[in-house]
Design a protein that fits this description.
Layout lengths: L1 H22 L3 H18 L8 H5 L9 E6 L2 E5 L4 H9 L4 H8 L7 E5 L5 H10 L4 E5 L3 H14 L4 E4 L2 E2 L4 E7 L23 E8 L1 H8 L6 E4 L5 H6 L2 H7 L2 E5 L2 H6 L4 H10 L2 E7 L2 E6 L1 H4 L2
Parallel strand pairs: 3-4, 3-9, 4-5, 6-8, 9-10
Antiparallel strand pairs: 1-2, 7-8, 10-12, 11-12
Helix pairs in contact: 1-2
Length: 303
């Protein structure tokens, strides 16, 4: 009976996918309708084959207008369907859920979360909802185009726990070139032009202030740091070198993106990052996609 229902529901959902976005007036309304139908199709289609049918069949009605989307009760974001991260959230309702879960396990009311490479704020906003008014979230994002979007999402979500640091993180105070990645994947913006050009040639560069994370943490006045996420398209080693004091004082859980070819474009490697963290008393616990969770465990690290 269930299979029969699914077979009957499938053509109805597909028909809605074909015609609803065209019938709804206004580009934002069409975008909302398009992704609502997509999510319904993914939720009800019973087979792996055909999961992407609406996208394959409807290239002419793919939406292009940014829309406001309620990710969860305390997380509201303006999402651009032409941008990879935003489009994924609109389609699935989340972004890299396994990475979030790895961090969520170490956050509670009153915790401090540091989001280095905050982008449009997905993890920062989710963390703010967890740590509450007694907690702190420090969102570090150097791309001026993205900072505007990040701050808009923070206001829309009423996330008063978040402080934005509109800088890059490095191992010393300096001014660096930041390359803005194309609109297809703005999350690939990087201090390396090559890394910022993976979805097409980076068109713009900004001179941005770079600061050690230790200075940002010290000036924030936080009494604890529980989790630090570092996702900066190849500059992870620079970030961690500038966070020695924070690691030594607070021993936070780390979730660090480690992509060797991106690190090599910045003159380092996965092995060098892992070696540096071992020297600080950290050991890798498990891998979540391109991210590695590190925990402070000096006795384990010295074996």
């Amino acid at each position: 009976m269930k299979k029969r229902y699914l077979w009957l529901a499938a053509p109805i959902i597909l028909a809605a996918a074909m015609y609803t976005p065209r019938l709804v007036a206004g580009p934002e309304s069409r975008t909302q309708a398009y992704f609502a139908v997509q999510r319904a199709w993914l939720a009800h289609w019973p087979f792996d084959y055909g999961k992407n049918a609406p996208t394959v069949l409807l290239p002419a009605v793919l939406p292009g207008a940014p829309v406001w989307y309620q990710v969860e009760p305390q997380v509201r974001m303006r999402l651009d369907p032409d941008d990879y991260v935003s489009r994924t959230i609109l389609l699935n309702g989340d972004w890299e859920p396994a990475s979030w879960q790895a961090m969520r396990e170490h956050l509670a009311s009153g915790s401090t979360f540091v989001d280095v490479g905050a982008q449009i704020g997905y993890y920062s906003l989710k963390a703010a909802a967890v740590v509450g008014p007694r907690g702190r979230v420090i969102a570090v994002e150097p791309n001026p185009e993205t900072v505007t979007k990040l701050e808009g999402n923070i206001r829309a979500s009423g996330a008063k726990a978040i402080t934005v640091a509109p800088v890059a993180c490095s191992d010393s105070e300096s001014v660096l070139d930041l390359y803005a990645a194309p609109a297809a994947n703005t999350g690939e913006s990087s201090l390396s032009k090559t890394n910022a050009s993976q979805a097409g040639e980076a068109q713009r560069a900004y001179k941005v202030r770079a600061r050690p994370l230790d200075d940002i943490i010290r000036e924030s006045g936080v009494a604890r740091v529980d989790v630090i996420k570092v996702d900066v398209e190849g500059a992870e080693y620079l970030v961690l070198r500038g966070a020695r004091e924070t690691l030594a004082e607070f021993h936070p859980i780390l979730l660090v993106e480690l992509v060797d070819h991106q690190l090599r474009e910045m003159g380092t490697s996965v092995a060098q990052v892992e070696g540096f963290l071992r020297e600080q008393g950290y050991t890798g616990r498990h891998k979540v996609g391109d991210n590695v969770e590190f925990v402070f465990a000096p006795q384990v690290s010295q074996r």
